[in-house]
Write a structure and sequence with these properties.
Elements (H helix, E strand, L loop, with lengths): L19 H4 L15 H10 L5 H16 L5 H12 L3 E6 L4 H13 L3 E6 L29 H11 L3 E5 L5 H8 L4 E5 L10 H5 L16
Parallel strand pairs: 1-2, 1-3, 3-4
Helix pairs in contact: 3-4, 6-7
Length: about 220
């Protein structure tokens, strides 16, 4: 029996060669996604960026920081400036245990800048992976206790602490998704984990024409 081919999505922003949405100095392509959004929906979205609601305050603070400090501040510094502009003092750190030292350093940095950091490691709760149906073959070290990452617990602990902004420091792919989904406070990222590339995942894209051609092999585990 012939397998039915999946319908391919249409062109998206990555296929655009003009990026006219930024400066409006060129022409919009025929497939521009903005054309799929009605004027009413666009107005409704823009309205969320006005006023004094959380979405509006975040949008304005982010845009002002981009304009005032473009190319001048590190990510760590931007988080500090953003926290101050938003009036946030209690900063939660959702941390991979493998980046404990980085979290300790950032804690000291936040302390030095008058903020109140509180960190929760991913292994908090110390629940063995087998308790959620993960078999021994998928443990890094076999036949011993190996705690699963617990991003929902991290989110719950930080909510109880009353954190106003939560910062991801190296959570695994998927675990970061769960943390962001369950976080009561807005979330930003300081470190994106990439064990192979020293936590610089963009390097794989920069070198995809040579060292990481395998990205285009299409035979990754499904």
């Amino acid at each position: 029996m012939k397998q039915k081919r999946k319908k391919q999505p249409g062109p998206s922003c990555a296929d655009c060669g003009t990026m006219n949405c930024y400066r409006r100095e060129k022409q919009f392509p025929e497939f521009c996604l903005a054309e799929t959004i009605s004027a009413g929906e666009q107005s409704e979205i823009v309205e969320q960026y006005r006023g004094e609601g959380m979405d509006a305050r975040i949008a304005r603070s982010a845009a002002e920081i981009e304009g005032a400090y473009y190319g001048k501040l590190t990510r760590a510094e931007e988080i500090i400036v953003f926290s101050r502009r938003m009036g946030f003092r209690k900063i939660g750190l959702a941390t991979c245990i493998g980046l404990a030292e980085e979290a300790r350093i950032f804690t000291r940095v936040l302390d030095a800048n008058g903020l109140q950091p509180f960190s929760v490691f991913c292994k908090a709760g110390s629940v063995d992976k087998t308790e959620i149906g993960i078999t021994e073959e998928f443990k890094i070290r076999k036949s011993c206790h190996e705690s699963l990452c617990n991003p929902i617990l991290q989110a719950r602990v930080l909510e109880k602490q009353g954190t106003e902004l939560n910062v991801v420091i190296g959570l695994c792919v998927g675990h970061d998704s769960l943390f962001m989904k369950h976080s009561a406070a807005p979330v930003t990222t300081l470190v994106t984990k990439d064990r192979i590339l020293g936590h610089n995942p963009a390097a794989a894209l920069y070198t995809s024409g040579f060292y990481y051609k395998r990205l285009f092999d299409g035979d990754r585990e499904q």
